[in-house]
Write the C-alpha cells for this entry.
Amino acid sequence: MAEMIEPADVRILEALQTDGRLTNQALAEKVGLSTSPSWRRVRHLEETGVIQGYKAVLDRKAIGLGVLAFIRVKIDSHSAAEAEAFAAEVIGLDEVVACYSIAGDADFLLQVVSPDLDSYADFAMSTLRRLPRIKEMQTTFVLKEIKGFDGFPLRFTGGRP
C-alpha cells in the first residue's frame, strides 16, 4: 500500500495538476504555506517520484490527430518473456500513446492516435498486425471524447486537503 500523503502535499498536488506552471510564490499562497516549506515539499514530492514531471497538455485534434482508438491485443504466449518482448516493441511505436497489460480476454490495451482512418488502417495493417507475437487484435474507435484524463483524484490519498 502506498504511503499516506500529508494534507499540505495533497493541496500542492491538486494545485500543480491544475496548473503545473505555478511559481513557488503563487503555489505557496494557493496552498497556505510560506515559500520555503512549499519549495521543500515540492522537491520531496519530485525526489520520491510522486511528481514525475511537468508537461504541456495538447489538444489532439488541434495537432492533426483526429482518430483515437483503443486496441485490445492477445499475444500467442502468456510467458513473461513474450509479454516483455511485445511491450518492448510497442514502446517504440509513435502511434501508441499508452499501453496497459490487462486482465480478461485480452493481454494488452493500446491507446492509439492517427491523423485519419486511412493512416490508422496503414498503421494497424502494416505495422501493428505484423508484430510477430500478435494472435488477435480488436479495435474500438472513439466517436466522442466525453471525459479525457485530467489528473488523478486525490481524495483517496488519505490526506485531506
In short: The longest helix spans residues 35-47. The chain has two domains: 7-47, 67-141. The CA atoms of residues 7 and 160 lie 5 Å apart.
